[in-house]
Each structure stands twice: as structure tokens, then as C-alpha cells.
Amino acid sequence: MQLVEQQCSRYLTMFSNCLQEFPQTWHLDCERQKLKLAKCAESEPTIVKIKTECKTEFLRYEGCINSNPVHTHFCLEDYNAFNKCAEKFTDKKTVVTKSMNSSKEKSKEAR
């Protein structure tokens, strides 16, 4: 997460704000912000390495999020697997910890 914050803070803020504004429909309403954040993150070498080396875990997690946009807490196991893989390539957590936590909170609020 810290790599994304350092390199792409503007886009991360835009995406986070959108998630807060549209907790039930973020998967529809925040697509543009999500794509901008992803494009920015793709320019960070460590993130590129993680996406390459942890592709299976990332795709599993991404698929779960896409299948459960309102109930992202269902994806915690996939997230943890991706995070464990990603940690091999950095001494700090580099994946979307805050977004996952905020998504879980939004899911609880929606119930």
C-alpha cells in the first residue's frame, strides 16, 4: 500500500473518495478512478514485479472482488494469499490493505 501511496496518492485519494461516496455501487460508479489508479501503479517497478510474480493470487482476489462487489469481506482469504505473496518482494505491505479494510466496513454498514 505504501508504494501506491507514494507513487499514486492523487489517484488513490480519488478512488477512496469515490468508494466512500458510492459504497453500494462503487463497482459501477468508480471504474474510471480505479483504472487511473491501476495505470499509475503499473508504472512502479516493485508493483509490476508483484503483479508478475503473484499473478495467480492477484487474479483470484480480483475475481472474488468482481464477483462480490458489495460483500468484499468474502474475499479475505484470497486477499491474504495475495498479500503474503506480495510481501516477498518488499519489506512493507504494498497491497491494498486500507481499501480492503474500508470495503469490509462498507459491507458491514450495508447490512
Protein architecture, described:
It comes from Batillaria attramentaria. Pfam families: CX9C (PF16860). This is IMS import disulfide relay-system CHCH-CHCH-like Cx9C domain-containing protein. It is a single chain. With about 110 residues, the protein is mainly alpha-helical. The chain is built from seven helices and no strands.
Brief description of this entry?
The chain has 111 residues and is an all-alpha fold. It has 7 helices and no strands.
**Into which percent range does the helicity of residues fall?**
over 70%
- N/C terminus separation: 27 Å
Q: What does the average pLDDT come to?
A: 81
**Shape, please?**
globular
Report Rg: 13 Å
Largest sheet: none
Structural class: mainly alpha
Overall strand count: 0
- Low-pLDDT segments, ≥5 res: 93-111
Order of helices and strands: HHHHHHH
> What's the total helix number?
7
- Beta-strand content estimate: under 5%
What brief labels describe this structure?
mainly alpha, 111 residues, 7 helices
Question: SSE layout and pairings?
Answer:
Elements: H1 2-21, H2 26-29, H3 31-41, H4 45-53, H5 55-67, H6 76-87, H7 97-110
